[in-house]
From TrEMBL:
One of its GO terms (molecular function) is thymidine kinase activity. InterPro entries: P-loop_NTPase, Thymidine_kinase. Belongs to the thymidine kinase family. The lineage of its organism: Bacteria, Bacillati, Actinomycetota, Actinomycetes, Kitasatosporales. The active site is at 87 (proton acceptor). This is Thymidine kinase. GO terms for cellular component: cytosol. GO terms for biological process: DNA biosynthetic process; thymidine metabolic process. Substrate binds at residues 170-173, 189. Keywords: ATP-binding, DNA synthesis, Kinase, Nucleotide-binding, Transferase. It comes from the Bacteria.
């Protein structure tokens, strides 16, 4: 039976890479998919991974109707074995409902990928709806790491290198940015563990290297 699956995690944990791998494996077996994305960093109509892979995708803007698009595609003689939707956090709840109808009414697998929460630790509306509706929610196994070495569970936004907790929910950007160039270049992201997100302690604020020795307090080792 067709299903709606949501692969979720922080930024930079490999979601787009997995989307490209799933597409590759399916097309190697002759399956045909429709690939959607929204606001990919590489540009409109692209699904890109930091590993350098990129593929064409259909840009699903705020007015896009997934169900209508797939129905139109099928009725014009197209074949659709599966649907991939990347950057699904940016979708509206209504668009996620459309994806669920693609599964239930058309019998087509839908695999969505997206970050769960924004820089304020609040659920994105699209992710919230996916968690509500998905048959399966999977957290990616290759977790990103906080500068302290703990598993990164939250996304921080930085402006000029400093973590902020106010601003627009959607600002396209990357984890390796955050310099002090122009206005846009100032905004960056960093993945952190919850403790350091709560303390607004980014790597720069902590004076940490790539993987700092200034780790979280741990229980003393017995006998030492
Ligand atoms: N130079 C590299 N060598 C090996 N792996 C890399 C390299 N650069 C990025 N990665 C891997 O790619 C992941 C990010 O993949 P990506 O699909 O772009 O993430 P997401 O879509 O979740 O933001 C990183 O967590 C890391 O595992
Ligand atoms: C936390 C957060 C992120 N974004 C943007 C930044 C990126 O363009 C995407 C996430 O892409 P990735 O492939 O998962 O790295 O989301 C945002 O707009 N608002 C936020 O709060």
């Amino acid at each position: 039976m067709a299903e709606l699956a949501f692969f979720s995690g922080t930024m930079d944990c490999g979601k787009s890479t997995l989307a490209l791998q799933m597409r590759h494996n399916r097309s190697a077996r002759g399956l045909i998919g429709l690939i959607f994305t929204r606001n990919d960093r590489a540009g409109a109509g692209l699904l890109s991974s930091r590993l350098g892979l990129v593929t064409d995708a259909i840009e699903a803007d705020e007015f896009f109707d997934f169900h209508a698009h797939v129905v139109k595609y099928l009725t014009s003689g197209g074949r659709v074995d599966y649907v991939i939707a990347d950057e699904a956090q940016f979708l509206s709840p209504g668009q996620v409902d459309q994806l669920a109808r693609v599964v239930d009414d058309l019998g087509i697998d839908v695999i969505a990928f997206g970050i769960t929460t924004d820089f304020r630790t609040r659920l994105f509306p699209g992710s919230q709806r996916l968690i509500e509706l998905a048959d399966r929610v999977e957290v990616l196994q290759v977790e990103a790491l906080c500068w302290c070495g703990a598993k990164a569970t939250h996304n921080a936004r930085t402006v000029g290198g400093r973590m902020v907790v106010e601003g627009a929910q959607v600002v396209v950007g990357d984890v390796s940015q955050g310099g002090t160039g122009g206005e846009a270049a100032e905004i960056g992201y960093e993945v952190l563990c919850r403790r350091h997100h709560r303390r607004r302690l980014t790597a720069a604020a902590a004076g940490a290297g790539p993987l700092s020795q200034d780790v979280l307090p741990t229980d003393p080792v017995p006998g030492r």
